[in-house]
Each structure stands twice: as structure tokens, then as C-alpha cells.
């Protein structure tokens, strides 16, 4: 599981604070909304208030916090008027008044009204508290002092989102210091897991032969530092409220692991062989490795490293035990087995017999033991280091069984991790193979095959094979809407959606889809039924009619129709073709109509604004035909631009009829505000971008440079 970060995000703990602060004597209260003038409806009611008055919480919600439903025949009109005035003036008020319960019985109570402010010092809530008068007036007013603002010890909290206050001495379990400390303790634990078995089986045996219980060499600095680290770790775990859980779980193990055995040698205190065995209790700290595996399970590289380290550590332990068994056979003085053990055989092969040369060196013995342990864990061994005595054979059997278990656990996990690491690549190859099989089975033509492969490969490079809708389907609607707004923020930031409410934007974001077009692909063909409004996120497209370029579209352009109010089929008046690889976002007309029906106030604004925000209107019958002879002088650069583009695209006999929408035609004649924005200038940028990095065909470098200069000259001409 991932590391949990705890409840330390900014929160509004006002309600919890109020419930805790006024528990007991002041638990009978309601909260009224101060932002609704005159009414001040109740937005929260405590359980004590319901018990005192006899009303259910559902009956009190949205009623006035003046508690007019508790008024009766003996309720003072003067006091109720003062209460209303205090609420209107947003000031504190305190009085004694007679009220009536739901059952009709009256009660005399102390009533307090306290305004509650937010972080901007604005009154947003009223706390109205009532307390039944059963004691003397002096006692009641003394108790009511808890509600006085300002100088008291427990003032009314503010209604705001605030950061959780924590002591600077508290260590966050996900903080950088705690994470670094945990890894330091883990490394120290691995150090102990390596050195303790080695010292017990190799160093201690040699020391026992040399001097029995004599003190060994002084401990190393690293051993003392590890013991100090373990002691500090216990102190850190006792600093917080988790100490109770720590006492019942890991305290005993950590105390044993932190016992300063090495300090006994530092003070020249003689110890026997049993003290070395006690140090093996420190190996219990390795159980915390399981916590690490669970916490960092989403990091494949970390888990893979820990698993391989565990396997190597187990082989080290087996090597130490294998050496210990060999030494025990030699020291047993059993005439039937002392001279056939594996250490005795190793000594004879190396020419270092025990009685003449003291046996093989510790280095040779350890390397041979580790070789036998690894060969037994990973396979059945090679026989050059074999088990001869009964003890050695029993240990070899156990080693093989443990090796089989480790193969299932460690290498099974390693295989799964590696598969996860390459799962995306494997999925890509699987999809590619399925696509090729589909093409082969259905005998698709070469051109269509190339288009399919290009579309698949480019789409995969964009989303890496992740299906967003499938990924987000299990998330709450609120969270999915926020994610969708972030993913589609470029489209939702258009001026077209500036006046839309947040709820409308959230609804729109959920119906926005993505699409892709490869160069040469037609997004829309003339006469097709228009299904959506399209937004160009990247790339270049052109609008064609009768082989005539009507418009060139680039990043940020919007194309579609302005007729959205009626359920009618909208025929397109031109083709839209991709010049480069294009990423698109689109809103289906059906979904758009449904959203606009939910927000009628915005619907009319949308219909009005879209007429101006569409880069090109594809609705049939919207365009106006203009011939060059009748074109305005301000339209000449556009006509020259179209001639240049058609010439570059190899159109030999272009039709010079230009069809543009009415707003653009008015702009060309100077009759619209659009003329002030010079619509041809951004168009020139798109063409230049297309020539430099887009589809230039088979142009030579000189011809391409000439075309660039020609287009630049077109847009430098005065209108």
C-alpha cells in the first residue's frame, strides 16, 4: 500500500471544535447562516438542543435561528425584537427569556447569541445557545461567561479552513527526516544481519579455540554506532502517542536488539560463547522488512532490490551454518565422522590439514560455504562440495527445501515485478500484432493499412495506451469532474465559456472527448452530418470546398456550427482535412444540448457568443460566395494567400471562389469590429509555421525559402 499521509491537510474543524468546547452545559445550541439576511436559517442543530426542545433535527433545519418556533404566550415581544436587532447588527446578545417546548410546556432559559467570523473577519454564522434556568442567576451568568469573546481562555473559533496545528517536535511518518531515518535503521539492520551470524559462526569459533572465554578483539566503531542507532530509535518511537502501540508490539524486540553487547568487550569484560548467540536476537528486527515491502510495494525497483537482498542474506546465513556444522564435526572427536566432513575434505584438497597447518583459512572456508549455499538454494548442487556426515546431509536437505520455497516466493515476485515493468511494452506489441492480424485477415489495401498503423502508433505515443474513461470510472463524480476540468482546461478557457458557471463547466468537461487526425485524413467531409464542435489542440488543418482552400486552422481554432437549439441534422458545407498530425477535443452536439438545457441562463449567451468565436462555421447555408472581382481590397491578401497555398499543394486549376462566413466578409469591408484585429495576421503565422515544420512536400531548400519569402511579402503589403 502507498504511504498514508495522515489527516494533516488543511481542514475546517469548526464544528468539531464547537462540539468539544460546548459539551455539557452549553451543548444546547444552533448555528444560523448570517449571510441570509432577516431569516438567518439554521444550518446545524446540536443533539442537546433537540432533546431540550423536543423537535427533531429535520424539523429545525432552515428555520430562523431566532427560534420563533419556541415562542409562546409569555414570551416577551420586547426581547424577541432585541434578538432580531442584535442579529441584524451582527453583535453579541445575552438575555433571559421564557420559551416553549414542542410539547407546549414552558421553560425559563438563558439565551446567548454570538457572531462567528471567518478569516476575513466577516460574520458568517450565529451561535444561538440556550440553557434551561435551574440554578441561581449568578451561577447562570458565571457559566455563560464561556461564550464571551475576547479575553477568555476559550474564545469562539473562527469558521475557516486552517492548517492543522502540530507541535514542531512531532515527527511526521512521511517526512523527509523520518523516511531517511527509517532507511538508515534498515541499513543498520542489514549490517547486523550480516555481521552477527558471521561473528557467531566464524570469529567466535576461532576465539573459542584460541582462548576459550577470553576476551576477543575490541569492537569496531561501526558495531558501536549501530547499537547507538538502535537506542536512539527506541527513544524516537517513545516521543509520540504511538508509544502505547509500540510497547505492545516492537519494544521488546528493539530492547533486546539494542543491548550493548559490544560495550562488554570495550570494558574488557570476559564473556562466554552464549553472549554471541544472544546477539542473534537482533535478527528479529528484519521482520520490519515486511513493513517496508508493503509500504513501498508500488516502487518496483525498491521491491526488487529488497527481495534480491533477502535472497543473498539467506545464502549468507546458510553459509555460516554450513561452516558451523563442519567445525562441529571436526571438534566432535567421533572417529567415524571427524575425518570425512566437508571441512576436512577441503583441507586435504588445499593441502592445509588441521593437525599440521591449522586447516584452511577463514576466507577460503567462507567462500566455499557461500558457494555451497548458493548452489544448493538455486539448484541441487554440483557435488564438488558435498555432504558426507549425517548432520551435513540433514542440513543439505533443509537447504534444498528452503531453496524451493525461495524460488516460489522471491523469484516469483521478481518475475511479477519484471512483468509489470514491461507490461506496457508487452501490451503495445500485443495490440500491434492484433492490428496486423486484422489487416491480414480482412485483406485491407496498403494505403488503408498505413493509415491505421500511423494512427495507432501516434495515438499510443500520446496516451501510452491508457484508457482515461476506464481509469476514472470508479472515482466519485465530483473527483472525475475536477480531473476532467484539468484535462480540458485549454478548451474551457476559451472566451466562449467565460460566463458559464462552475457547475456548467464541470458538466461540459465530462462530455469532452479527444480525437486524433494524421496528415491527409479527413475529419469532416462536405455534406456529412455534423456531430460535434471541434477544438484544435495542436497541428494544422485546412477547410476545403471544391478543391479550394477556404481556411487554414491551427492551435486554438474552433470549428463547428452555430445552430444548436433545435434537434435537426446539420449538414456541413466544406471538408476539413489534416495537414499535420493533429490533436483535437470535441463536444458532441447531443451532449451539448443536454447541458444547455440544464443551464438555460447560459444557453442564450452560448448561442450568441459561438457565432463570433467559431473560426469557421461549417453549417450548410451559412457561407457567402464572394468572387475576386467583387472582393473588398482588404480581402486581397487572403486571396493571394490561397493562391500560394494551392500552388504549393500542387493544385493546377484551382477555383478562386472564396467562401467565407458573414462575419469575416464584414470584417474585410471594415463593417465589423473584427477588422480592427486584422484576422489575416494570425493566418500568416499559421501558414509560415506550416511551411517551416509541416507538410512541404518535395520542395527543395531554395524553393521552400522562396515560398517563405513570398508568403511573408504577402502579409507585409498594406491593405
Question: What can you see in these coordinates?
Answer:
Keywords: Cell membrane, Glycoprotein, Ion channel, Ion transport, Membrane, Potassium, Potassium channel, Potassium transport, Transmembrane, Transmembrane helix, Transport, Voltage-gated channel. It is found in: Cell membrane. This is Voltage-gated delayed rectifier potassium channel KCNH4. This protein is an alpha+beta fold. It has five domains: 14-147, Beta-Lactamase (2-Layer Sandwich), CATH 3.30.450; 296-421, Helix Hairpins, CATH 1.10.287; 425-463, Non-ribosomal Peptide Synthetase Peptidyl Carrier Protein, Chain A; 468-622, Jelly Rolls, CATH 2.60.120.10; 629-716, no CATH class. The chain is 50% helix and 12% strand. It contains 29 helices and 16 strands. Strands 2-1-5-4-3 form a five-stranded antiparallel sheet, with helices on both faces. Strands 6-13-8-11-14 form a five-stranded mixed sheet. Strands 7-12-9-10 form a four-stranded antiparallel sheet. Helix 13 (300-331) runs antiparallel to helix 17 and helix 16 (362-378) crosses helix 17 (390-421). The radius of gyration is 41 Å and the shape is flat.
